[in-house]
Design goal:
- The protein is an alpha+beta fold.
- The chain is built from eleven helices and 18 strands.
- The two termini are 19 Å apart.
Length: 389
């Protein structure tokens, strides 16, 4: 009986790998479809269109798909692959939103050059969505699941998952494993831990005055902001894994007026060893300090993404064994980028990130995906699902 079961597993394994091996062009075609849809965060129509395109492929393969409306952001895509429905599930995750504004696709649509695909979101992370969809389809067509396999594609990851974080944590709570298809590193490696992030918006009020006639009567909000930027920059502690960056500033009305108002946006990155509440209070103290007489600052908004705790060694080793059998090797890497994998790891779900196809230069016009990695990375995830104890 044991020999029969083992033979059956080998046959399923072969069917899944062989089926995926024949899907290179189909994967590329689906990738082109979803890349050529603008789906920036808060673009409800665009995100929903991406979800509908993926749903069409999944439903045709017999995968049950539910699109859950998220007002202001689009939809969540949740799917259940045919097979076991009871027990702790394995979760394949991704996000459908990108950082690019509407109109980007018209300026630089999907294109292929020297084996690389280019286009908005092609690596981060529409290629990962396509890969996960084909892994799900492989199991729907070939069977072999011993645990529930689910897809969860969110719609607001690029802005810190403000509307979906509770959904993500609920979906991951109690999962046997989570594979998050953010792009594989340029090296081909996976991501086994990440920094957390805070996006903090703040403003400074000053006192308007004529810059030539009555300069002393004014209190420059821009001048106060400049002092705050230097103080915030000084919070960077590379050894502790903390970085700060004021990346957006606005202020003033005209050059000959002492600026009555200014505002800025601060990006903070930190590791799992950092107390984020204490760090935020340090930021708040700088923002609220009277940097110049008669000026006042206040925090107006904050979004936080949790750091990803290290992947259990057993989960990394599981993926590595499958990859090795396919002819490639990978290691785990730490990255300063934040992702929804921080949320899944925070609820105790063993999480492996960066399982998507290899790509580079995310969030830039040079963003690319190595098309030759679509199939082997899909096969590696499929083997990790198939071999998970």
């Amino acid at each position: 009986m044991q020999d029969t079961l083992e033979e059956s597993r080998v046959q399923v394994r072969t069917r899944i790998l062989d089926w995926l091996a024949g899907q290179q062009q189909a994967m590329q075609d689906l990738l082109q479809k979803v890349v050529d849809i603008d789906s920036g965060s808060r673009d409800e129509a665009g995100v929903t269109a991406v979800a509908a395109t993926l749903r069409e492929r999944l439903v045709a393969a017999g995968v049950a798909v539910e699109l859950v409306p998220v007002p202001g952001y689009g939809v969540l895509l949740q799917a259940q692959v045919p097979g076991p429905t009871e027990g702790a599930p394995i979760l394949l995750m991704g996000h459908m939103d990108t950082v690019y504004p509407a109109g980007t696709v018209a300026r630089r649509p999907f294109r292929v050059e020297d084996g690389r695909a280019y286009g908005p979101g092609v690596a981060d992370m529409k290629s990962g969505l396509v890969m996960n969809a084909f892994v799900a389809e492989a199991f729907a067509r070939c069977g072999g699941l011993t645990a529930p396999l689910r897809l969860f594609f969110s719609c607001d990851e690029e802005i810190g998952s403000p509307a979906t974080r509770e959904h993500i944590m609920a979906a991951a709570r109690g999962a046997r494993a989570v594979f998050n298809a953010e792009p594989g590193r340029v090296s081909g490696n996976l991501v086994t831990s990440r920094k957390g992030s805070m996006a903090i918006e703040f403003e400074v009020q000053g006192v308007a005055a004529h810059a030539g006639i009555n300069h002393a009567a004014g209190a420059s909000a821009i001048g106060a902001l400049a002092h705050k930027i230097l103080a915030l920059d000084a919070l960077t502690d590379v050894a502790a894994g903390i970085t700060t960056n004021v990346g957006v500033v606005q202020g003033g009305i005209v050059p000959n007026m002492v600026a009555p108002h200014a505002k800025a946006e601060l990006d903070v990155r930190y590791t799992a060893e950092t107390d984020p509440d204490e760090l935020f209070e340090r930021v708040r103290a700088i923002v609220e300090a009277e940097s110049l007489p008669r000026t006042q600052g206040r925090v107006t908004g904050m979004r936080r993404t949790l750091p990803m705790k290290p992947t259990p060694e057993t989960l990394l080793a599981l993926y590595q064994r499958g990859a090795q059998s396919l002819g490639f090797s990978v290691e785990g890497e730490f990255t300063g980028g934040a992702a929804d994998s921080g949320l899944t790891a925070s609820v105790g779900a063993p999480t492996l990130c960066g399982t998507g196809p290899v790509g580079g230069h995310p969030h830039t016009e040079r963003e690319y995906c190595e098309l030759s990695t679509l199939v082997p990375r899909a096969q590696a995830v499929a083997l990790a699902v198939l071999d998970h104890p």
